[in-house]
């Protein structure tokens, strides 16, 4: 799971617990100006990745249970995932960043509350 922190015009995603090892990352830092869109409860394929659609670059995937790390989506770019329960996730569409999309399971607040908090910070910046 992940926890988000907003400060000084940036969003920091803290990857928590064992997910740090699965995702091979402990945090991500994104300027709020690079967040193009925030979506609560996005539609996520938690099944086995199809080699025709995407490939896991670094991280872990257990179909139906976990998706963590960097995946390359053909025709789109790199996505970062930290997901166990898709219904508790938010998705961030990014510009001018390494990742095209970040999909994370939120800890400590609802996906709608987290998305609203990010949108509010984007509007204030």
Count of discrete structural domains: 1
Structural class: alpha+beta
Helix % is 10-25%
Radius of gyration: 14 Å
Helix count from the secondary structure assignment: 2
Instruction: Give the CA-CA distance, first to last residue.
Output: 27 Å
Order of helices and strands: EEHEEEEEEEH
Anisotropy-based shape: globular
Low-confidence stretches: none
Question: In order across it, which strands form the biggest sheet?
Answer: 4-8-9-7-6-5
Number of strands: 9
Task: Tell me what portion of residues adopts beta-strand conformation.
Answer: over 45%
Average pLDDT across residues? 86
Largest sheet: 6 strands, mixed
Can you offer a commentary on this structure?
This protein is an alpha+beta fold and 125 residues long. The protein has two helices and nine strands; from the N terminus they run E-E-H-E-E-E-E-E-E-E-H. The protein has a six-stranded mixed β-sheet. The protein has a three-stranded antiparallel β-sheet with strand order 1-2-3. The longest helix has 14 residues, at 111-124. The radius of gyration is 14 Å and the shape is globular. The two termini are 27 Å apart. The mean pLDDT is 86.
What are the salient characteristics of this protein?
125 residues, alpha+beta, 6-stranded mixed β-sheet
Concise summary:
By secondary structure, the protein is α+β, with helices and mostly antiparallel strands. It is built from 2 helices and 9 strands.
């Amino acid at each position: 799971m992940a926890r988000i922190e907003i400060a000084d015009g940036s969003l920091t995603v803290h990857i928590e617990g064992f997910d740090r090892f699965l995702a091979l990352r402990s945090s991500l830092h994104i300027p709020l100006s690079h967040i193009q869109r925030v979506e609560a409860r996005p539609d996520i394929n938690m099944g086995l990745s199809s080699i025709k659609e995407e490939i896991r670059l670094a991280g872990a995937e257990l179909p139906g249970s976990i998706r963590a790390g960097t995946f390359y989506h053909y025709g789109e770019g790199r996505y970062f995932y930290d997901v166990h329960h898709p219904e508790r996730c938010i998705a961030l569409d990014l510009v001018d960043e390494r990742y095209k999309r970040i999909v994370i399971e939120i800890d400590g607040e609802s996906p709608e509350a987290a998305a609203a908090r990010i949108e509010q910070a984007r509007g204030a910046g």
